[in-house]
Amino acid sequence: MDSAANLNKDTVHAGLKLTMEDQGAIKKQAAAEAEAEEHLLSAETARIASTSHPHADSQHPNLDLNANNFEETINIRMEDIYQANPANAKYKKYIPVYLHPTDKNQYIPLTPGTTQIWAQALIEHTAGVSVSSPPSSLKFVKLSSKKRKLNASIGSSSSEMGQVLAQLLSNQNQPTSPSGSDAVASSEDKSDPPAISDYVKFVNIDEDKQASVMKILDKNKVNDYRMFKSKSITVTNLKCWGLKGGTIAHLLDNVNKYKAYLSKK
């Protein structure tokens, strides 16, 4: 319109032409640009792979590190790391962790990004790096004080439970030594008992056997003659301790007789 005014004419013959861009052409151009960008990324990936290790990986010799299988190699290495460092609920419930070799309160959460850095270091054969030794660029995280207290309480409970289970198994595999309270509680006589050696002499066990019998009784904490009336002591127990049939009969059959003897003294 300005051009028409500048001509200083009353009548100007002019026309307006409107054109629309071809949407198909726009899409083709965008696709071409995306393809070019993908090509550049593939080329860069191949360059990194070839400069990192131009030959096949020593632990996976069938893998040729190029743009097509470089990502697959990274994934394999990440899987190796995850298998060597599984998840630990004491640190992270669902994320694998690498634990500090000397400080149990430090760890590295193995997120995908962190593990990929580790895997890349493995592929590049960085000195000192293995599936059980991360690159120095990965930083340790300190366990929170709340987690530390919780882990300590769990560990203590587990230790105590382990001791209880071990004791139960031991009791199942060995004859149980009777408790003095069981025998004495079942007796009406609450007075202090005489020495068990006096009972051994009273029941007429041969003198040459008395020392060995006393040793067995002492080992199994039998220090009261009334314990031979306890249900905890059976013939089987006494045989397992190493006592013979005649000696067992003398010890089990003379409790009441010895009690009567003591009452007359």
Kindly summarize this structure in a few lines.
By secondary structure, the protein is an alpha+beta fold. The chain is built from 11 helices and 4 strands. The model is unreliable at 39-45, 53-58 and 60-65 (pLDDT under 50).
Structure description:
The protein has 265 residues and is of the alpha+beta class. It has 2 domains: 32-146, no CATH class; 180-263, DNA polymerase, domain 1, CATH 1.10.150. The protein is built from 11 helices and 4 strands; from the N terminus they run H-H-H-E-E-E-H-E-H-H-H-H-H-H-H. The protein has a 4-stranded antiparallel β-sheet, with no helix packed on it. Helix 3 packs across helix 4. The radius of gyration is 44 Å and the shape is rod-shaped. The model is unreliable at 39-45, 53-58 and 60-65 (pLDDT under 50). Residues 171-180 have a biased composition (Polar residues). Residues 171-192 are annotated as: Disordered.
